[in-house]
Amino acid sequence: MNLHRYPQLVDLLAAEYVLGTLRGGARRRLQQYAEHDVVIRKSLEEWQQRLEPLAELVPPRMPSAAVWEAIEQRLGIVAARDGAPTRPSAQATRPTRPTDTARPARNWLDNLAFWRGWAIGVTAIAAIAVVVAVRSLLLIEGTTTTPSQTVAQQAGAEVSHVAVLNDKNAQPIMLVAWDEAHSTMTLHRLGDVQLPPDRAMQLWGIPASGHPVSLGVLPNSGNGKVSAAEQRPESYAALAISIEPPGGSPNPDGPSGPVVFSGKLLPVS
Amino acid sequence: MTANTRELTPETLAALLERVATEDAAALRELYDAAAPKLFGLALRILTKHEWAEEVLQDSFVNIWRFAGDYKRALSAPMTWMSAIVRNRALDHLRRVNTQETEWSEALDDLVATGDPDPETLSAVSLQARLLDGCMQQLEPVQRQAVALAYLRDQSHSEIAATLTVPLGTVKSWIRRGLAKLKSCLGGGV
Q1: Do A15 and B190 touch (CB under 8 A)?
Q2: Tens digits of per-residue pLDDT, B123-159?
Q3: How many domains does chain B have?
Q4: Rounded to a whole number, what is the largest CA-CA distance in chain A?
Q5: What are the tens digits of pLDDT across the range A156-174?
Q6: Whether residues B84 and B112 fall in one domain
Q7: ipTM
Q8: Phi-psi region of B26 (alpha: psi -120 to 50; beta: other; left: phi over 0)
Q9: Looking at beta carbons, which residues of chain B come within 8 Å of A77?
Q10: In order of start, what are the domains of chain A with their CATH numbers?
């Protein structure tokens, strides 16, 4: 069908796409058309600009003070708090460069095509071998004092499932320890993680059948804790990480960017 | 907040974002003081649970810190850019908890601010948002609700029909007419 014969239809589809009410197959088709069609792309952009400010029109509410404290903790910028509450003197609070969540280094894979089309798949045998190794690693960490955000420091952490996410060369990059009882996942970086400057890592649960489910955007460092909310590890056979725009994939049903790391999710005991 | 807040024009916010891009932690604090209530209001509206909204606000500021270097004044107003991050994070959270049980906690009609907005909060809002606000007020209340439920709660036509207890076809036509009206109000051909 030549959509251009129906400019009003195209415009309505674009509007409903941006609004979110265009769903399923129709949504995917419009997305496909847009990739090759500048008119559709322009229409989508215009609607994006029209509707995006809707998010600003909600009345303000005060968050609790704990939110800022948590942000400071995660970014390692606690020093900035010692100044005046709203406007710390620049001199006194020259921020220390955060270590844990340092910005992604420039010039990672400029060539994202390298990753593209890379299917989720990792050999189960390799994964199990690492799980065994990981179990002993977790035990060791439990007896030593390590810097913040290790599994050991979660009060009463009970790791129920683990996944070792490998890159396409089967190199382990990240360990995800899922504590089902506390609904948290702790990330341990095992290998080099470098992100392009304007991208984030998003974690996905891959069910035995059906589409991937987002488990959240991860800290760039590849270390730290994320909430599992009401997700259960039993629902997923594997975990995967994709490279996404800030805030995560605009597509609710799966990654929009390349899947770079993946691994089976296995029960620990 | 503080006397500072009143001067928070989009220009001030953009300047703060540019300082945040140089890893200036004090600028992040100022930006937080200025924008957090607005962004928290958005997260809370989408998620309704305080705990979830605070988690999303926290995540969003971590993202703002990381990606401030990508913010481009020419492409979007600072509040629009930050709101988009919060909305994406909040909708993502909503899908993760696949929440049928969260309730639309407040009066639907109050979804998009009406009446005289607080001038302090309005100053930070982008010009585009103020224009859109004016146009939203021209929609029928039901059209406004349907549009807002779709955009701010990620509801489908049939979910909106269930929320507002009206037939599916009615929702579709409200949305279609609402969008057409918004377009002509904001300017734009076809």
Answers
A1: no
A2: 567 888 888 888 988 898 889 989 998 998 888 999 9
A3: 2
A4: 70
A5: 567 888 888 888 777 788 8
A6: no
A7: 0.81
A8: alpha
A9: 25, 28
A10: 3-57 (no CATH), 112-267 (2.60.40)
